[in-house]
Each structure stands twice: as C-alpha cells, then as structure tokens.
Amino acid sequence: MIYAAMILMTCILYFVAKKLYKKYPIFILHPLLLCPILIIAVILPFHVSANQYMSGVAFLTHLLGPATVAFAIPIYKHLPVIKKNMSIILISVTTGTLVAIMSSFALSMAFQLNSNFLISVLPRSITTPIAIEVSKDIGGLPTLTTIFVIFTGIIGGIIGPHVIKFLSIKSPLAKGLALGMSAHGVGTNKAREYGEQEATFSTLAMIFAAFITMIWAKSLIPALIHLTSI
Amino acid sequence: MKILMIALQILFIHVFLYLGAGVKALLGVPIPASMIGLFLLFIALCLKIVKLEWVEKGAGWLIAELLLFFVPSAVGIINYDDIFSLQGLETILLIGVSTFIVMGTTAFVADKIFKRKDRETA
C-alpha cells in the first residue's frame, strides 16, 4: 500500500515537473533535478530513508529494462536511413566515446580525484544499465557511476540546444548523434523535441556508444587505470 | 482503453527482456539482458514474427517517459555524502566540461562527414 503511494507520488511529481519544465525551461526545473529534490523533501519528514524509498519504487527503476528493449522499434522503423549512414554513425560515435573517456580521465587527473571517483566517472557517457556493467567490470562503484550518468544526462540535455546553435549544426543526423552520444537517454529525450530523425540517430548513438564503450572497458580503460598506479 | 493497450504492450515487451536474460544466462556474455532483448525484438520485427502494431504504442510510452525511470536512482544521491564535498563539486564540473567537449566533437565530426558525403553525391 505504502509502496503504491510512493510510486503514485513519484509519478505525480514527475508529471508536474515535466509540465513545468516544458513551460519554463530553466535548469533547476529539469525533471531529473526538481523531482528528486521534491521527493527528498517529502520523504525526509516521514523518516523514510533513500534506500527504503528506492526499494519501494523499484518497479519504476525496473522499467528501464523494457524501455531499453523498446528502442528496437525506432531502429526498425528507420532501418533504410541507418544503412545509408552507417559509416558516419560508426566514425562519429567511436570518436565520441574516445573523447568521453579520455577527457573524463584527463580532468580527473587534473583535479586529483580519488580512485573511486576517477574509475566510476569513466563510463559516465553511456546509458545507465550498461554503465553499471562497465563500472563493475573496471572496478568502479556502480551507484556512484549511476549518479554521474544522471548528471551527464541533465547537463547534456540542458547545454545540447546551445551547443547545436553555437556550432550551427543543421543536419538532423549530426544533432541526433551528438545528443545521444553525449547525453544517452536524456539526450535522446531532448532529440525528440527536434524531430523523429534526430531521435532515431540519438538512439543509435546511445546504443553504439554503449557497445563501443564495452570494448574500451576491456582495452583502453584498464590501460588508463594502470597509468595512475605507476 | 488506450492505457490498457499500452500496459499490455509493455507486458509483451517484457517477453523479450526475459528472453534476453535467458540468452545471457545460457551464453554467459557480459552484455545486459535488456540490450540482448533489444536485439531479439529487432530481429523478430525484421523477420515479421512480431508486428509493429503489437509493440509500437507501449514502446512509445516507455521511451517518452524515460526520465521517470531515472528518478529513483537520482534520489539515491543523498546516500553519498562524498558528492557534497569539494571532490564532488569538481566531479560535477568535470562532467560538465567533458560533456560539452563530447557533444561538440561528435556534432562536428558527424556534420563534416555528412557534408562531404552530400557533396560527393551531388
């Protein structure tokens, strides 16, 4: 009963935040910022811990699984466009994953982050379920990685339109690939506002980024982590 | 009626999620079950085993409300006191700068190749 109430509350706050952000796109109203803040404000007075809350609404987190499966549909619908642009997708997303890992690594070194933060931040640019797998694989903390993935999404969703405007990117292909590569599902969500083509390329970038990063997790990332221990 | 249809389709999409989990257990591959499920559903659509109408509405809803499914994990941030330290702040700054570079580079590379290809075919 209490679980159902928590799920209902989460959904209501989410839809309120979503409506508000659509009307007033200021970053603090972003559903992934406003909604968790409101929820924390509601559960704390009731002495409900974050862990109790998260196990109560586990059903919502579970839906990330079928949601990932659901991305088969836009890929299937846009197969001809994908086939035509396969080389662009592969080249730009491979570049994107390399830049994501290398820049996160270089900045972590510059800030002298502790090793938990440094390792957990490396897979931050890919979709949560796979970032968690990669994080485990390379010796990071999956929960910390999840938080970094969410921050990546929020920031990417907010700066995305500005970067696209600033670089005067016109093609739906480049817009979609950039959003999906840099901000995974949240970027794809943003790409839907531009159009269906943008959303599809964003989805593809997200999926390819995840797979390519899994390859880096077995090659490039262990080499980088080894560097820090010398 | 529409909600019922969406719910039924989401249930049906679960079949592929669990097939994915089965394949993962059987082959022991380090790929998440949901990713394998995505491929299985994609193949089923291509082979016309599954019709687009059977899954389109449910999938559309799941993708449209994707942010909702991230909310519980975002609440988990209060478990990490570390985030509210200088290291945490630096990490968030790092994520901002890095995300900006990744987005810019990806857009730039994709746009350049796209324009060149466009010129070749023109």
Question: Would you mind describing this structure in some detail?
Answer:
Chain A: It is a multi-pass membrane protein. Chain A: The chain crosses the membrane at residues 27-47, 53-76, 88-111, 144-164, 199-217. Chain A: Its main location: membrane. Chain A: One of its GO terms (cellular component) is plasma membrane. The complex is a heterodimer of chains A (230) and B (122). By secondary structure, chain A is mainly α. Chain A is built from 14 helices and no strands. Chain A is globular and about 50 Å long. With 122 residues, chain B is an all-alpha fold. Chain B folds into two domains: 1-75, no CATH class; 80-122. Helix content of chain B is 77%, strand content 0%. Chain B is extended, with a radius of gyration of 21 Å.
Short description:
With about 230 residues, chain A is an all-alpha fold. Helices cover about 80% and strands about 0% of the residues of chain A.
List the helices and strands and how they pair.
The complex is a heterodimer of chains A (230) and B (122).
Chain A: H1 2-23, H2 31-43, H3 50-56, H4 58-62, H5 64-70, H6 72-77, H7 79-84, H8 86-110, H9 115-121, H10 128-138, H11 142-166, H12 172-194, H13 196-216, H14 220-228
Helix pairs in contact in A: 1-2, 8-9, 8-12, 8-13, 9-11, 10-11, 11-12, 12-13
Chain B: H1 2-27, H2 33-46, H3 52-64, H4 71-75, H5 86-121
Key words describing this protein structure:
heterodimer; A: 230 residues; mainly alpha; globular; B: 122 residues; 5 helices; extended
Given the helix and strand composition of chain A, which structural class is it?
A: mainly alpha
**Share in β-strands of chain B:** under 5%
Q: What is the arithmetic mean of pLDDT of chain B?
A: 92
Coarse morphology of chain A: globular
Total DSSP helices of chain A? 14
Pattern of helices and strands of chain B: HHHHH
Largest sheet of chain B: none
Q: Over all CA atoms, what is the radius of gyration of chain A?
A: 18 Å
The biggest beta sheet of chain A is recorded as: none
Q: Work out the number of β strands of chain A.
A: 0
Largest interface: A-B, 99 and 73 residues
